[in-house]
Specification:
13 helices; 3-stranded mixed β-sheet; single chain; about 15% strand
Length: about 325
């Protein structure tokens, strides 16, 4: 068994076409939940759902989020109502006292449903309704996601990193904002001062996640700060990685990032925005997969290939390189 860590689109792209290399049923994915929000009362888990939709064959692979060919009538009507009523659009945080009352899983990331700033498709919304209902019935987030995965016909185990709330808060020159406001609404425009993983000190990895981390681990080409950062902010999660074999796929080609705000966020948190900076941020990694054009000299084994991802052939190629890196790092891969 091999366990993958996922945040954003990096790992879903890696696993797209990777089934011949890593059998889905024995290759669980542990997902970042620091990006989760409560939107209009619904619990939205973007990184979890990207993996679920990808594994179910539903993902919109043009955008790499949401469901392909989904309609957005509810979302458009919600926005139209706010516009006609003269209500301010954009992120509308619930009052401060509401951030720590109600569902514990939603703490520090609760938004009004007025004028939704995140586009939720109609079929996508059905998943959020079901997840929220299961949580309200007393299921844990892990249990709720397992039910949804079963309903979608997903064979690969998809696990949240924690059943406790961890919120990624980006501190900017315009003040603190949840990562979804920073990335989705503001398109990473504000200058970043620091990044906080609020709640991480009190959060614990789930038993299922810790069990999965006993196996060799693959860190996909995700943002080291906001995709892996919430996981690494939990002591037991970080300790588990230090105790197993880990291979990481760099999201950079030397100092060029493939996509997203990883460069800006790494620089803001005191890391060099490059493959060398990723290696420094991942002291637990035993080997790396780098792009053919990445000449970074690392002090750990390196396997090089074309790390561009987006097609099944790409995923198969990079997963094959990952398997080779695991073997060079001493892992036994069935």
């Amino acid at each position: 068994m091999v366990t993958f860590l996922a945040g954003g689109t990096g790992t879903p792209k890696l696993l797209y076409g990777g089934a011949p290399v890593f059998e889905p049923s024995s290759s669980p994915v542990v997902c970042n939940t620091g990006d989760d929000v409560e939107m209009g009362g619904l619990i939205v888990c973007p990184d979890v759902d990207t993996v679920l939709f990808s594994e179910a064959g539903l993902l919109d692979r043009e955008r790499w989020w949401g469901i392909a060919d989904d309609t957005t009538e509810t979302h458009e009507t919600v926005r139209a109502l706010a516009d006609e009523a003269g209500l301010e659009a954009g992120p509308r945080y619930l009052p401060e006292d509401a951030q720590t009352s109600g569902r514990e899983i939603a703490r520090w990331r609760r938004f009004s449903g007025v004028a939704e700033f995140m586009e939720l498709g109609d079929r996508d919304r059905a998943v959020h309704v079901t997840r929220t209902g299961l949580l309200d019935e007393g299921r844990t987030l892990t249990e709720a996601i397992d039910v949804i995965a079963d309903g979608l016909g997903v064979d690969r185990p998809v696990l949240p990193m924690s059943d406790d709330p961890v919120a990624t808060i980006v501190h900017t020159d315009e003040g603190p904002m949840h990562f979804q406001e920073f990335w989705v609404h503001r398109r990473a425009e504000p200058a970043v001062d620091s990044v906080e993983f609020r709640g991480a000190a009190a959060a614990e990895p789930t038993d299922a996640a810790l069990t999965a981390l006993e196996e060799p681990v693959v860190v996909g080409p995700s943002n080291p700060v906001t995709s892996l950062g919430p996981m690494l902010a939990m002591d037991r999660f970080r300790e588990a990685l230090a105790a197993t074999t880990v291979v990481a796929v760099s999201p950079f080609v030397e100092d060029r990032v493939f996509s997203g705000p990883a460069g800006e966020l790494m620089a803001a948190t005191g890391r060099e925005p490059s493959t060398a900076g990723v290696a420094e941020a991942y002291p637990f990694a035993d080997a790396f997969v780098l792009d053919d054009d990445d000449g970074t000299d690392l002090d750990r084994p390196v396997v090089r290939t074309d790390t561009e991802l987006g097609t099944p052939a790409d995923g198969h190629r990079v997963c094959t390189a990952v398997r080779t890196a695991l073997e060079r790092a001493g892992a036994e891969v069935a």
